[in-house]
Fold this protein.
Amino acid sequence: MCIVRRTLPGRSRAAPARRAGAGVCASIAILLLALGCAPPAPVASSARADDRPPAARQPADAPAAPAVDAPAPPIVDAAPAHDRAPLAGIDVSHFQGAVDWSRVAADGVHFAFVKASGGLDVVDPTFAAHWPALRRAGVVRGAYHFFYPNDDAAVQARHFLDQLGPLEDDDLPPALDVEITKDVDGAMLRAGVLRWLEMVEAATGRRPILYTSPHFADAHLDDPRFADYPLWLADYNDAVAVPAAWQRAGHSWTFLQHQEDGQIDGVEKSVDLDRFAGDRAALDAFIRASRVGPGGGARRAARARAARGQLDQAGAVPEDRPG
């Protein structure tokens, strides 16, 4: 049978073709019925890719969709950065202005050193407020004294202890800041530093911390006796230089002052940023290990007596008031 197909103006050929095909199929069905035959069952045709909604269209090589009940990958809840070693800390004096220690703690600071005193009679005016506020905020606290080598070391030690008062079990050991010479010769400077350390250790039952810089330590504190004390090192370089005395003893820094112009929420002005060489459990262990009992042990006491002898041989230390 010849089927004539016409295309109407303005219309596509697809629609008439479908109608013509439908008519042929109907004629065949009528002829089969007339001959006593059942027409064939219609065969469902699959939809073309173009006829599917956009969301259902996939390229031929697309990977198979995952099973609906496939388990989701586990979520790893990483610890906050400030809870990982090394611990973050700061050190402050009256130069930092107002400090809100609750905000400081919330900003990830775990410990802080605050200046208590300096020389023979300098008292930091903010220490009395900082010291109890640190404890209320849950920040581990430590106090330091700024050492003047031209002032009597024993008087400086007693002056610091008067400001400090009794330490709590979870306080950091006292710290001595040694960074100027005041034109005092090396032997007198070293003897004075050792005298201060020994007296404060005997009074508090804690082994003090010694703060200094690599250059100053190598120039003025290159003595194996200082390596017995934990080092709080001021070094703002990427490659930290541990002073020779500590290197020879196989020690490194315990605290590192790594930046002098940091910004911490709750501190009015820029502030020194510090690190402890470990996590919070290590810091707690360090505090426990700093307890040495009265006198600080026979070996350090003997060295302190030798230091006093050096101090006496050097003559009386001038008692100029600190600048």
